[in-house]
């Protein structure tokens, strides 16, 4: 356990870290990549460029400092981080590298404020957190390796099929090259793809599994990521998959991970509301298919927001589900068609997914909510559910960014 002195000192640094957090984490990553370039393949260069990774780490450090005397509230964060680490094959030997550069960065950024007492306290606190994460990650590695069809590390898969789902999304059907079985995954989870880079190294990306468990293949559905601003690079891995990977090619795949999933053993009478925007539909599709098969009598509401129908994946499949499952209600909302668009289908509308639309389909609001999509969509949905007083046990989401942005916005 942490000493009372350490808890007191670390907690007292929370306001300072809140003020200088992003400066500190930017310095930390620059320092670590300079002193320990071997860890580069574990990080997403695009997220570094956008500052997403720096903000996520800053938020995690601040949350740890502020709650170091009540770590139970960080349980969800520990589960999120542990799953992410396992997906990227982070091992115990990597923690000293991070710790050394983090403590040095605290010294270098905070200057006189980083006294020996502060550094010693943070060293103890980092060691304590390391033990928690390493312990949980050991369990996750063991679970992945020992389940039927499971493995640890990267396994070679063949692309059995590649389908175009929309103008910018393609699905890849992946089968083990060794012909062995696949493990059961939980609907909503993701796998990791490792590919070579132009400099002879490797890089990794997580992609949600977009089909239900129990198949002899994994399916991922990948959006081609284009640069949002001039001068920025396009998404390296997504464009490689779209342009260079075809049927018969081989990819290195890590086992399924992730704390965002539907547990089919938890059966409830209340409706299941699935909300997605854009490519956020991928884990939602896995959850939808699983629910319709495992719980055909449960009321399910699916709302999918897209820019246009041209970039919308899976519409024909979802329409088939809607026609054959009377307990499934579906609505599509398009944000870039314009208010005067001619939409003959009463299940389609223009605009953004908002509280009014959700409430029109779930009048009493009492339901289990699963949602995934880009940051503005996620923040708005989270705020709406918070205002409605929906219990946290009924709110589940996959947020591709620092979670504290959700909390702060709310």
Cα shape: globular
In angstroms, what separates the terminal alpha carbons? Answer: 33 Å
CATH H level of the largest domain: which superfamily? Globins
Biggest sheet, in brief?
6 strands, antiparallel
CATH architecture of the largest domain: Orthogonal Bundle
Rg on CA atoms, Å? 22 Å
Number of helices, counting only DSSP H or I runs of 4 residues or more: 13
- Percent helix range: 40-55%
SS class = alpha/beta
Count of DSSP E strands?
Answer: 12
What does this structure look like?
With 410 residues, the chain is α/β, with parallel strands linked by helices. It folds into three domains: 143 residues, Globins (Globin-like); 103 residues, Elongation Factor Tu (Ef-tu), domain 3 (Beta Barrel); 138 residues, 3-Layer(aba) Sandwich (Rossmann fold). The chain has 13 helices and twelve strands. The chain has a six-stranded antiparallel beta sheet with strand order 4-3-6-1-2-5. β7, α9 and β8 form a beta-alpha-beta unit. The two termini are 33 Å apart.
């Amino acid at each position: 356990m942490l000493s009372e002195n350490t808890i007191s000192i670390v907690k007292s640094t929370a306001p300072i870290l809140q003020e200088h957090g992003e400066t500190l984490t930017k310095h930390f990553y620059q320092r670590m990549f300079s002193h320990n370039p071997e860890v580069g393949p574990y990080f997403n260069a695009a997220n570094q460029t956008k500052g997403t990774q720096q903000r996520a780490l800053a938020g995690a450090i601040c949350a740890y400092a502020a709650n170091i005397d009540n770590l139970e509230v960080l349980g969800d964060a520990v589960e999120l981080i542990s799953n992410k680490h396992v997906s990227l094959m982070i091992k115990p030997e990597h923690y000293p590298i991070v710790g050394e550069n983090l403590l040095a960065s605290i010294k270098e950024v905070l200057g006189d404020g980083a006294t020996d007492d502060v550094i010693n306290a943070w060293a103890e606190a980092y060691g304590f957190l390391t033990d928690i994460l390493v312990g949980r990650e050991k369990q996750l590695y063991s679970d992945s390796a020992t389940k039927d069809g499971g493995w640890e590390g990267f396994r070679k898969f063949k692309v059995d099929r590649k389908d175009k789902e929309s103008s910018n999304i393609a699905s890849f059907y992946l089968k083990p090259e060794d012909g062995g079985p696949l493990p059961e995954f939980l609907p909503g989870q993701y796998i990791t793809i490792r590919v070579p880079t132009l400099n002879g190294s490797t890089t990794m990306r997580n992609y949600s599994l977009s089909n239900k468990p129990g198949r002899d293949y994994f399916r991922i559905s990948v959006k081609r990521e284009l640069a949002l601003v001039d001068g920025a690079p396009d998404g390296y891995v997504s464009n490689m998959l779209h342009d260079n990977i075809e049927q018969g090619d081989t990819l290195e795949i890590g086992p399924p991970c992730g704390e965002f999933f539907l547990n089919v053993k938890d059966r409830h009478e209340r409706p299941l509301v699935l909300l997605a925007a854009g490519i956020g539909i991928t884990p939602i599709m896995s959850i939808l298919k699983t629910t319709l098969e495992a719980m055909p009598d449960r009321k399910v509401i699916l709302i999918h927001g897209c820019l246009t129908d041209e970039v919308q994946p899976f519409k024909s499949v979802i329409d088939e589900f809607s026609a054959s499952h009377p307990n499934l209600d579906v609505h599509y909302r398009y944000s870039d068609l314009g208010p005067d668009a001619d939409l003959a289908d009463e299940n389609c509308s223009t605009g953004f997914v908002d509280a009014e639309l959700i409430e029109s389909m779930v009048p009493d609001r009492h339901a289990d909510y699963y949602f995934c999509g880009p940051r503005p969509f996620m923040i708005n949905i989270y705020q709406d559910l918070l205002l409605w007083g929906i219990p946290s046990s009924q709110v589940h989401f996959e947020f591709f960014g620092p979670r504290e942005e959700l909390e702060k916005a709310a």
